[in-house]
User: Fold this.
Amino acid sequence: MLQIKTLGIYDSGLGGFSIYHELKTTFPDLDMVLFADQLNAPYGNKSKEEIQTIAFEAMFRFQQAGIDSVLIACNTVSAVALDFLRESFPDMNLWGIIDITVSQVPIGASVGIVATQATVDSGAYQKVLQSSFTIQKALVDLVGLIENLEDIDTIKQYLVNDDVYNQDYLILGCTHYPLVSDVFETVSRAIILDSRLPIRQFVEKLYLPGEGKTSVFTSGEPAHLTNQIKSLFNYDEEVLEWNSLF
Ligand code: DGL
Assistant:
């Protein structure tokens, strides 16, 4: 049976950190490397080809560093590039976040999905939720608002009233969005689902206990990510330059 020694986590930014933080808190003996590609964020408004090129480069670096098990903690990459990455790196174990997230939805429930433009356009959630009534909405500016640490009122004004919030379930189909889940709770009467719980369950089954050696890398400015993490999580994290992974 496959066992993960060091888990790579990949996202465009803070969404990946929220998954990393969740796993680090739950499994203190899990070895992990997080890559936040903030230089290229946000991904969600880019074309499929651009996202595939950027994601290929990221996976290549993980592979070169000897990390062959990577959780794509980005819905956008999972939606438009997962098959391409699996074909490009057949020796790596790559998991997308969409299949993991939808495992929580009961058959037949009505589901609203909020996500980036690229994820919505791909129809990836609707493909795996075929037995449900689904409605989607792209929140094209929300990743930028979260990365810029905008205040709750600004984010609330951005989430204008919409049917997507009023189905049985609301899927936060972007790993940045749980960072403002309390704002979604004020505009939605649905049961809100995100990826954190099923990812914990998924990783628990597969990882080999290690020493809890973890590192966080960004392609952006390390001090900037350290400050964002301090503001959002009240957590002191040393962030390294992605180029220093080798
Ligand atoms: N966290 C990424 C996702 O889940 C955000 C994508 C972006 O950078 O726009 O889709």
The radius of gyration is 17 Å.
